[in-house]
Amino acid sequence: MRTPRAGLARVSARLWESLWGRLWVWLLLPWLLVLAVAVIEVTDGLHGRVAHAGSLLTPAPALAAVRGRPRDVLAVSAAALALGLATSFEPVTAETDTSTTALVSLAVVSAAGLVAAAVRRRREGQLVRIRQVAEAAQLALLSPVPRRTDGLRLAARYSAAESDTLIGGDLYEVVVRPDRTRLIIGDVRGKGLPAIRTAAAVLGAFREAAQYESALTTVAGRCSRAVERCAREAAGGAGPDAEAEAEAEADELFVTAALVEIEGGRLRVVDLGHPPPLLLTAGGCEPLAVDPLPPLGLVHGFTAGWDDERGLTVHTRWRPGDRLLLHTDGIDEARDGRGRFFPLAETLRELRGVPTERLPDELLAAVARHTGGRLRDDAAVVAVEFSAAGEAVGEAVTGVAGETGAEEGR
């Protein structure tokens, strides 16, 4: 249940994030303060009164240092000091003379603001470079998908979360064989370098197995064993003080994933704890009916006697013009300020007319609008369209009714 205090905290946090993101606010506030003091002093001077408003200038450099550059702080400080000096020569009694104290305070705050702004700018530059390196490391794992292959159009995008976590564990890959195309999309539990290491192991195993293994479930098994190896290495490489913690972490290491094999008009899917692929047709959008299995790294403990049929779902509704959308949970679990989930199915129906090459970008843009630009988790999207060029192949495959029906019944 939401309490009034919790609601007020959320509103305050959103207000602060909104204000922090508007640089012009922090640059305008100190100048408005200097202008207000100048108006007060001039107005009271014209009426023969002494206002002594110079002490109000002290916060101006501090406000400029919140988001401004050192030169912005220097400009505000110079204007405030000039105004303070100009108003300090007015005749006052000894009992009320505080101009010297106000000027000293203003000078101290100005110097501190300059130092703070310089340090903040340097740290912001370091964070930007760290984020760029981290995103480059993430994207280095994700090879560009082919835009076109036999009868297919493909597009993929990855978006890093706007949070303190610089590196995520979302992954995708497309492997094209002469007779079929295989895809994987997944999400590693956890963040940071361990997630990147696990993602790299899964992608390496998938690229190798997808080329040479005949069954899609065998490919999934190879990927699952790669996750298990990462878990064992993580536990074995820990020091004596962290061994128990590393073993507990390794026991919980897993990767949710969906593997898809496209052979003309036939789709084969192995779902391992991941959001099922969505099929976009002229009639609407619906998730593929799959038999879910435990995630990679855990599936062997739950699935004794792994074989070529377990967890394999075959669909024959794949027609020219239909599209398949694979995504991670950073899409459908994205929430707005009121805690409402992103309406994925409704949005995809609205984006029905968007070309496949633009669909991932448009979908991620819709998620950003829903969350107010604050993506809490990494998001990966892969879109595949069965183009008209693959119609002949699709007819040849789906025409074998007896074989298709037998596979559907498995």
Summarize the structure.
This protein has helices spanning 4-20, 23-46, 59-67, 70-87, 99-141, 192-212, 216-236, 243-251, 299-302, 329-332, 344-350, 359-371, 391-398, 401-408, and strands at 148-149, 152-159, 170-176, 181-188, 255-263, 266-272, 278-281, 284-287, 312-315, 323-327, 379-386.
Attribute tags:
disordered N terminus; elongated; alpha+beta; 410 residues; disordered C terminus; six-stranded antiparallel β-sheet
Word description of this protein:
By secondary structure, the chain is α+β, with helices and mostly antiparallel strands. Helices cover 50% and strands 16% of the residues. The chain is built from 14 helices and eleven strands. It has helices at residues 4-20, 23-46, 59-67, 70-87, 99-141, 192-212, 216-236, 243-251, 299-302, 329-332, 344-350, 359-371, 391-398, 401-408; strands at residues 148-149, 152-159, 170-176, 181-188, 255-263, 266-272, 278-281, 284-287, 312-315, 323-327, 379-386. A six-stranded antiparallel β-sheet has the order 1-2-11-10-7-8. A five-stranded antiparallel β-sheet has the order 3-4-5-6-9. A hairpin with a 2-residue loop joins strand 1 and strand 2. The longest helix is centred in the N-terminal third of the chain and has 43 residues, at 99-141. The two termini are 45 Å apart. 34% of the residues are buried.
- The largest sheet has its strands arranged as 1-2-11-10-7-8
- Computed over alpha carbons, the radius of gyration is 30 Å
Reported for the largest beta sheet, the result is: 6 strands, antiparallel
Name the helicity range: 40-55%
Number of strand elements = 11
Count the DSSP helices: 14
- Give the helix/strand class: alpha+beta
